[in-house]
Specification:
Pathway: Cell wall biogenesis; peptidoglycan biosynthesis. This protein has 172 residues and is mainly beta. The protein contains 3 helices and 11 strands, in the order E-E-E-E-E-E-H-H-E-E-E-E-H-E.
Length: 172
């Protein structure tokens, strides 16, 4: 169930617009230890490995060509209703769209990171990539982001509650 600003306007989450194959479901997914997050960017799915070679699968939006994180990371931090600031590279690539947000956007319904964010780290350092909610539900199943992994807000809330800081993440 949605919390915060989404509770009164649950239709904003976009679940009714979602292709049914991107709805959360339990599937067979061997090869990773329980608790590992695996992001299959090519097929636009995020898997949370469970016991007995099963996984909870969610549809995601991923980065445009050349902008996605690849390889291993860990969840180094988690945040509810996170604030957001575009990276310097985002501002450089598209100043018309991003420069006005250089000082950041507070958490809430109009924030691009949505209801929750999992911050991906490597070697103790923030990669600047996130698994996060989105206020653009039509982006699920597409390669449109600046590299982050987008989920519907109610789906990222579900994932957020299931994984602790330190969770292993593999981006294929």
């Amino acid at each position: 169930m949605l919390a915060g600003p989404f509770a009164a306007n649950a239709h904003i989450a976009g679940a009714s617009q979602l292709d049914p194959r991107f709805a959360p479901q339990t599937v067979r997914y061997p090869g990773y230890g329980p608790g590992t997050i695996v992001v299959d960017t090519g097929n636009r799915f995020l898997y949370l490995s469970l016991e007995n070679d099963n996984a909870r699968r969610y549809g995601v939006g991923v980065g445009r060509a050349g902008l996605s994180l690849k390889g291993a990371a860990i969840v180094g931090r988690k945040a509810e209703w996170p604030s957001w600031r575009p990276t310097r590279n985002m501002i450089r690539r598209n100043p018309t769209k991003y420069a006005r947000y250089a000082n950041g956007v507070p958490g809430g319904r109009n924030n691009p990171l949505g209801a929750r964010a999992l911050y991906l780290y490597r070697n103790g350092r923030d990669t600047l990539y996130r698994i996060h909610g989105t206020n653009e539900p039509s982006s699920i199943g597409r390669s449109v982001s600046n590299g982050c992994i987008r989920m519907l807000n109610d789906h990222v809330i579900d994932l957020y509650e299931r994984v602790p800081v330190g969770t292993q993440v593999v981006v294929l």
